[in-house]
């Protein structure tokens, strides 16, 4: 893309996706926008050094709407989502790939803005974007912009796996539940909560590294980032993996009062909503206090709380205790009718 | 997804993308369809062994239309495209990730069919699918089904890079030019050529391995798969990388007569069209015969031909010699108006 093409009203056109000169110029512009965060060599594959013999690999596609929201956008979400998926497995995120599917007519300045966010998030997380791909589809064949990121990390400590979770482990949540979803729903529906409830979207590899460095190896059994399906889906996943009862207290959940109000208005429960910067950790009981302290000392873990524990059970269940002591078994939601939050 | 959900008229719905039970059931069905080709552990990241300290990483999104064509479909293209991108860099492809973006209303039996093709192609290529992601968007928000694959390979020999190409190298093409595009355009436009001109979509890692094993190290300087932009885009890329003249003879190009007829009808040139199973190789002159022999002995290289050579020049150009000896300098195409062929 020459300077003439970078004008404010310039749009992505079908020819940008054909592999010819215009394609190449768009790719060069994308690489320039990503700056030194991008280390692809314009070959068909990036050639990378991995210092360990064991790697973590993950992928995620992002179809967020709106593309740009109060304190983030699809570019930030696409990088943080994959960085976090690597980090919760105990890996150090190193490399990301970035695949773009762009609807013809999408404004190039908005594409640049999303890429700048991706670049900034990658910088914060300390990862490099090593390979990319750009496809253009016709008007009406995609909803503006979809991103896919795949990630490669290395294991400098043993991997964290869900089967390590056992009765006796404490369950810790690292931040307010549902803020990302409430923020996006508020922007989408014009509810007016979006200023008071911000998305929590953030790269959490630094937070996770601080926790894992701060306690003896094995004290943290497993970590999961709370995304689609919310805390409830995470707890059901770990209940199935451990065959245990995952029990938490409703009053212990870290929630922002404005988010509760918004969720009540929408008739939904925060435990089913997606975050993009919130962890659920399973920790040895005698180290739970240490982990909580480390989380709370970090900007992304200030509102962390111990919410419950893993109990021996004859079948996997998720249970919630009310302030009056009554207990409810939580079903796994069948569907949620809340698509495109991440 | 329970058996009741696998009925012929079952469709993907928005709830399949919400992270709740329906999502999980769809993901489990996807994993079951991929069979032992899928080695993801249903954690957020796959944990993988890499036998070398140097890896190749690449990504590609696929927006092919039609999704299903005469002798292939988006699932096959998505696996072969990424396998080939890894293999042309000299890497052995090991692991793929698979990201799906599905339009609500897409028939589940067609999704299964595309995944079966992806599985079969992965089996043939000897790669495992290690992580996946599924997003569902509303009707009209995507054109049925998009796939993204990212790939990880290992280097058991030195990487092949475009800057190794030098004057004196012979240029070899491994098969008929443009067949994949002509096949898809014929299906799209109802031209009637699709039976006689089949897509060449295939995993080429076996073919590349045979070539690299069969000649001394360094004899093959670089390989590129001829995809978007066609042979002309590949030659321009290598002209820029080497600063040399890339010269070929029109009469030497391997082309299928029916593909030439179809291209003439469409007013396009086969050198600009995408393949999905065709290589362009840059080879030391005294080993070109050996490489050609190895290619022609392989089912995917039967129609290989030496088409030209790299010549010293003052600026990078691509030149074509006609049968009467006249020479044309080929411009890089600006755009091609032929989107969504891969």
From TrEMBL, chains A, B:
Ranges where the PurM-like N-terminal domain occurs: 43-154
Top-level taxonomic group: Bacteria
Lineage, uppermost ranks: Bacteria, Pseudomonadati, Myxococcota, Polyangia, Polyangiales
Domain PurM-like C-terminal, chain residue ranges per copy: 166-318
Family: Belongs to the HypE family.
Pfam families assigned: AIRS, AIRS_C
This protein's name: Hydrogenase expression/formation protein HypE
Biological source species: Sorangium atrum
């Amino acid at each position: 893309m020459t300077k003439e093409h970078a004008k404010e009203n310039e749009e992505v056109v079908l020819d940008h996706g054909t592999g010819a000169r215009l394609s190449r110029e768009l790719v060069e512009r994308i690489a320039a926008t990503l700056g030194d965060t991008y280390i692809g060599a314009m070959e068909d594959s990036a050639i990378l050094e991995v210092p360990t013999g064991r790697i973590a690999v993950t992928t995620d596609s992002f179809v967020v709407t709106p593309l740009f929201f109060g304190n983030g956008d699809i570019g930030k979400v696409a990088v943080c989502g994959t960085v976090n998926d690597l980090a919760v497995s105990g890996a150090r995120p190193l490399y990301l790939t970035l695949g773009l599917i762009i609807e013809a007519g999408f404004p190039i300045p908005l594409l640049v803005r999303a890429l700048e966010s991706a670049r900034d998030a990658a910088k914060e997380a300390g990862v490099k974007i090593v390979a990319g791909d750009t496809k253009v589809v016709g008007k009406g064949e995609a909803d503006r912009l979809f991103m896919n990121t795949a990630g490669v990390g290395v294991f400098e400590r043993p991997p964290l796996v869900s089967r390590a979770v056992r009765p006796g482990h404490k369950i810790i949540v690292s931040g307010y539940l549902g803020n990302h979803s409430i923020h996006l729903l508020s922007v989408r529906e014009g509810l007016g909560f979006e200023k008071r409830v911000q998305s929590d979207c953030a790269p959490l590899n630094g937070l996770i590294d601080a926790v894992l460095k701060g306690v003896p190896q094995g004290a943290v059994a497993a970590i999961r980032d709370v995304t689609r399906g919310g805390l409830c889906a995470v707890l059901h996943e770990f209940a199935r993996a451990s065959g245990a009862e995952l029990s938490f207290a409703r009053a212990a959940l870290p929630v922002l009062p404005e988010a509760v109000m918004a969720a009540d208005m929408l008739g939904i429960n925060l435990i089913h909503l997606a975050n993009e910067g919130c962890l659920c950790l399973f920790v040895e009981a005698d180290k739970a206090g240490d982990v909580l302290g480390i989380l709370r000392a970090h900007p992304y873990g200030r509102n962390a709380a111990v919410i419950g524990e893993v109990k021996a059970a004859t079948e996997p269940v998720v249970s919630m205790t009310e302030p009056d002591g009554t207990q409810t078994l939580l079903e796994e939601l069948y569907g949620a009718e809340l698509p495109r939050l991440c």
